[in-house]
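Fig. S4 source data, part A: sequence.
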Amino acid sequence: MESIVCSNCNSQVLGTPFSVNYRCWSCQAMISTQQCETLSKGALRLHLMTRFSRSGRPSSMSPMPNQKPNPVSFAAGHQQKKALLCGVSYEKKNHKLKGTVNDVNRMKCLLVDLYGFPVNAIHVLTEEKNNTDLSPTKKNIQKALSWLVEDCKSGDSLVFYFSGHGLRQPDFNGDELDGYDETICPSDFMTAGMIFDNYINTTIVKPLKEGVKLHAIIDACHSGTILDLEHVYNLKKKRWEDNKPPSGARKCTNGGLAISLSACADDQMAADTTAFTGNEMSGALTYIFVQTIRENPQITYGDLLNEMKEKMELANRKGCLNSPFLKKLFRCNLMQECQLSSSKEFDVNAEQFKI
């Protein structure tokens, strides 16, 4: 028999050969062993304030309705590896997303299994938790972002992951080359507002000290420069391009390194698809990213971008990343291209991807 770890409460469950589903003895959550990363996500993230619903199978690892919520607490003491994972479902909204929590679980598995992140140093915000303090509201996300970089020291590795809606808004500060600010949408963004790239940069990029590395993985529309980093890698031209604000505002770190991998360019939309799982919806960026890293843990940033691009193109040729309705509406191919940006230029073909 094999030992299976419940991703909801981290208790160990003894598995039996050929069994697929188990119920955790501790928290009563259902566990699927079909994939370490669990199940799936929703349909399509859309442009600006246009709202469309995404559908997908709910997570099979959701807590039981009568499960008591765990008290909210951030990891005590200094942690060299810390992560904030946000999956926003927008429950009871007409732009609801079903399944974003599964991509959060997929990322959590990767961080724990491959990169040795302590479970108690991974802060998860989803609407699956029966606790309002663990919901991905604007207030909770902002609080958690501050926690992520709090007291950071040389040698620290930090991760910010977000899965949900992303929008664009006109830029009135002269900070954006394209004239638009990029945003992420908390669960309560219709009332509390969106979280702008300027805020994210100020909160988790500028405080990074010498020797501290931050990776942001953002699976949302219009997320190309969501951290407002000063350098964007052009995969076609094989070179870094200047993304410094026209206004002259400083968007740099305090000596540390910030790297962002996003689902698409600022003017593109990000897709979910069943192309990779057979019958389960999954965010294209998240699934391809995790799969590629697991297949080659020693991969460089350059090879990671190239392999992800090839897999995206393959799925696109099969028509798996496009909505026929949206293709007709916008009269274009909705192909998304993963984007790499950084606070400093580096050799993407020599530098190994490592969190």
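Fig. S4 source data, part B ends here. The helical segments are 100-113, 138-149, 189-192, 197-205, 284-295, 301-317, 324-330.
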